[in-house]
Every structure is written in structure tokens, then in C-alpha cells.
Amino acid sequence: MNDEPDGIDTPAAPGPRRLDIPRGGPLDGVGEAGGARTAREARAHLRLTDCPPRPPDADEHRPLPEGPVAREELALLRRVHRPAPGHAAMRERLRHTRLLALCGEPGTGRAWTGLALLAELTDEPTEGDDPAEAAGGEVVRLGPGTVPAGPQIERGHGYLLELPADATDPGPLLDRLRARFAERGAFGVVLVADGPAADRLLGARRHAVPYEPPPAAEVLDHHLAHLLADKPAELLDLARATAARPDVADALGLDEPRPGEAARLARHLAAHAEGRLSDEGLLERCRAFAPDQARAWFDGAGRPGTLPAALPALRTAALRIALAVFNGSAHSLTAEAAELLTWELAVTVDPQYAPGRPLFAARPGAGLAAARAVCCDGAEDLGEVSVPVRAVRFQGRRLASAVLYEAWDGHHNVRGPMARWLRALCDDPRPQVWVRAAVAAGVLCARDYLYGFVELLLPLARADSPVQRMAAATALAEAARDDGVRPAVDGLLRGWALGDDARERETAVLAHGYGLAAGSVRASLEELARLAYADDGRTTSYSVLRLLAGTDPEAVLAALAAWLHDTRRPRRDLALLTVLRAVTTRASHLWGLGEVPELEPYAAWPLATALLAARPGSAPRLAELLRAALTSARSAAAAEDALVGWIRRAARDDRQLAVLYGFLPRLAHDGDEPLDVRAATRIREVLEAL
Prior knowledge:
Elements: H1 35-46, E1 67-68, H2 71-80, H3 87-97, E2 99-104, H4 110-122, H5 131-134, E3 139-141, E4 158-162, H6 171-184, E5 187-193, H7 196-204, E6 208-210, H8 216-227, H9 233-243, H10 246-252, H11 259-273, H12 279-287, H13 289-298, H14 311-326, H15 331-349, H16 366-369, E7 373-381, E8 386-394, H17 399-410, H18 412-425, H19 431-447, H20 449-461, H21 466-479, H22 486-498, H23 502-512, H24 521-530, H25 538-548, H26 553-564, H27 569-582, H28 607-614, H29 619-631, H30 636-651, H31 654-667, E9 669-670, E10 673-674, H32 677-689
Parallel strand pairs: 2-5, 2-6, 3-4, 4-5
Antiparallel strand pairs: 1-3, 7-8, 9-10
């Protein structure tokens, strides 16, 4: 029973229609080469599973209390605190200037270092005073944004405070505070988060130092020793060994924990060593570190809620989200994507305000530090060659997925600007851009299909841009990895295939080329066979060819052989066009969303040659298909041209030539039977034309 519309096998004019070699893919070569590495890296960063939400332990995020710090707390601080680099120099500077601003990221131990500095100095007698009266001043922690007035400052005391969030030029404020502390014979440490305020302070050298945390390994070991000090020695050895386990490091997903995280990890390791926490419980708590960091980053990122005061915080949030999508990519691509997202976020906060871009950063690299990111050497794949780039990445493999999920799941009003941003990126012809954006869009659609379908998938699929339709297909295939979403994607594509919208129909064809939307490669092949009538075979054969370069080429070769003997001409043509493409298309242009490591050494070769080298068992089927193309009146001329080009290309590479030498004799025999005279004549003519 035919499953195509009536009349599709009837030629429009007498005589067979000649099939030509399809040139290029749906994007005509633009945005295809180089997509393999990009897709692989995007999947690796965004497909990490995180632990389910759970209530945090009571002491996991215990903040230091406001007000006077108890002597017991200071005594504990002295026992477990590890001095940061330059601790002695910071103490001497604070002693002489009475005020010190520590510029760095929250969670790096600035507060503990500030308390330690103040504790050391308040224990010393103030010059000119009676030592019995001056020693033993209190250390006071003020609430965020609290600035003490002169009468509130007690002589000999030390004060730890955080810079107000809306302070963009804090120099004059710190000058006044320094004068107050000097007048009252007290000390103050101000915590300043990295950003414009810190840049101004450090650029002017006004009472500020860049804060570098102590090594996390030292902090972790010191806390373990303290927590297990009164336990048997073997428990400390067990905790240290557990910290070095690969599964613990993988669950943590951070290159190096910050001091606060190291202290928290030490508590979990100590509990595990004592038997109070199971192996799975330990891993669950470790997997929560990256999501907790993302949650802390976005908490209050929109305050203050008016521009331009909120712009620095929005710019930092945009950089973190852009890094989540472009982690490991070229710094230039990431930075540009972050600026585009900054604009979307800013006009969402205040539609009447058009934000500009800062041309020169006061302190290069400060923005990356705020995202726990570093620059590194990298390479971008251009298909046939790779070029070196200055890349940027998170300092932790779980941070990318944690940031993307937190922004999407935890902050509904961010979804609109993120969706607009991703749709715009999906119109970029560079695969290094649109592929990453499409994979991210697919991941987000899997988390909320109802929203993603309307805001991401439909606009992309109905766009006039072929790159956006290809991105829509990629996003749909990526979303279909989720077992709960796959039936919805499969049903959507079936509806599009039967509909009248050519753009939606093409998107369905492209989506099935990944072999994910229908649940298996075989199911996608069945759908593509039904869609063979929908076009001249150019797009459909490209998707079949992509499947041939995928994880189950044997299923594709079997389907092509079956289609050759099908009574329906569109299916026969689809098989012929696919085999013509196989000998003319580079394997590197046919990347999918699954790993095919056996083809990687042959990525620059035509797919047929790469398959023969990587999977020698495919040779009989390929020979059968190529013989059919050479002997069919509809494809003979195109097949001869393709075969000539195939052999000439191989002649320039001894490795390819060796593969073809082993394959070409198969064209002269059909199993144990000699090739018929017509086919033998065709092959002889081709070889004579070389």
C-alpha cells in the first residue's frame, strides 16, 4: 500500500527524469563544516544531570552573624583559618591606614580573612593608650550595605562591612570611613565584589587590594584535620582518600573549590568518614555545589531594578549565561554573545533605555573572574582544518548546565530575553554559533516543552532563514533525547510532514536526519521514506546521508537496498541520490548528535571512503548501491561523474587510494556471480575516462 499521495510516481513528462548529483546540503555549505566539534562540546557541557532538589543542611550556608563576633567564634577562626597570599602585608597596611578594601568574589574567603585581620589587630594595644584598657577590642560584623556613623564606632574595635550594592564610585565613601576609623582609633575591612566599583578602587589604589584566596587543598585538609582531631587517625586518612576519588571529583564538577566550598566539603567528608553519610549521600551533596553557585549568582542579580544602576549586574549575569552556552568556545564569540544578551536583558528591565557597551575594561579579566572562568588555548574546527583561538571556559564542568538551568527554571522573566537571544544566535551562519545555540535551545525545550515550543521551536521552524530551520531541527532532535518529550516531538513532526507549510515540512525532514526524534534510526528512516515525495530528494537524501554517517549505518544501508527495489519511484530516487552523495560529500559535513568516534580519523574523506575504512563490513552493500546507480538510466551519468571524482580525489591520498583498491573489484562482481555486461561496460568506461 502506497503511503504517498496519489500520482506521485507518474512522471511529468515522457521518459525518465535524469538525476543529478546533489551539491551541498540544505545550507549550501554555509554553517555546516566545523559543526561536529561544536555539537560534541555543546552536548558535553549541557547534558550533565544534576541531583534532584533537596533542602540544604542547616549549617551548609550558615552566614556569619551580624553584630559582635563571639570570642568562641574568633578562637575557632584562629584554629581553622588558612592565611591568604599576602596576609602579612595586608595586616601591616590595615594597621597603618586603618581601612582596607578586599576586592574579590564572594565565597573566596574574603570575610574570614577580614575577620582574621581585625582579630589580630584588635588584640594589640593601641599606641599611646594603657595596654590594659586598649587590648581586647571587639570585632563587629555589620549587615550588608551598613555604613557606620562616627558615634557608632568604638575605640579599638574592628568592623567588617560590605560595600553597598548601588555604590559605583566608592572612593569618596571609603575616604570618609578611613577618616572616621582613624579618628576613633578603630579598624575597618570593607568587602568589595569584583565589578566596576572594584575596578575604580584598584585603578586609583585607594585603600584597596585584589584578594587572592588560599589554596583550596590547604583549606580542605586543615578543616578535615580540625573536624576529625579527636577521632582515630584512620578516619582522617579515609576522608583524604575519599576527597581524591574520581567519582567525588566528578560529582563536585569544580576545578578547584573556593575556600567556603572547601570548608563545606570537609564537613561532608568528615560525616562520611564517621559513617553518618552514605556514599550516595556524599555524591548527592557534591552534585549540589554547582547549582548552589548558580543560585547564588542570580539571587538579586536584577537589583537595583532600574537602569543604568542595574546594568553592571545584568552584564555579569549575561556573561555567565553566555558562558553556559559557549563554554570552551572562542572568547570573541562568547563576549559578543554576552553583549547581545545584555542588551536583551536591559531593554526588558527598561524598554525605553538603550544600553551602550563599555569600550575599555579598567581591569582585563575581572569579568571572567566573576563568572569563575579563565582564558585558555583552544581550537575551532573549520571542517578541513582547525585554527587556534583564545578560548574561555568555566572553572568546573558542571557550572555550564547549572547556570543554564538556574536561569531558565528559577527566573521566569529571564526566559523571554533568553529565547530572543537564542533565536538570533540561530541565524548566525557560523556553526560555532548556531549549533551551540540550537543545542542549548533543545536542552531548554526538554525542561519546559510547552514554553519552548511557542517561544523557540515554532519561530525557528517558520523562519525564512535556512540556518534557523536547521537550528530548529537540531533543537527538536536534542529535545527528543528526553523520554518524556520525545512523543510530543515525534507527533509534531508527523503533523508537519502532512501539512501544507513547506518550511515546517523541511524542518521535519532535517530533524529526522539526527535519528532521535522518532526514537530510533530505523523509525527515522521510515519517516524519511514517507517524506521522499515532498521534494526533489535534495533535503531528504541529505538527512538519510546524515544517518548513514551516524551510529547505525548498517540500518541505513539495509534501507537503501530495500528502497532500490521499491515500486515507488520517490523511494528509488532517494536511494540513488543518497549513494551519489555518499561518494561526493565529506564526512566532516555530516555531523550528528551522537558520538561516532570510528569516523573521526577519516573526517576529511568522502563518506563512502570513510565508511569503507572504518567499517569494512559495509563494502558489499555499498558496492550493490553503487552498481545500481551506475546501471540505472536515471542516475548513470551522475554516477559516472561521481565515481570519476571519487577516484581522482583518492589518487591524491595514498591512504584513500588503498581503500579504493580494495573496494573497486567488488564493483566487478555481484557476490559470487560476475557482473552483467552492461554494468561491466559502465565501469570500464569510467576507468578509461580517468
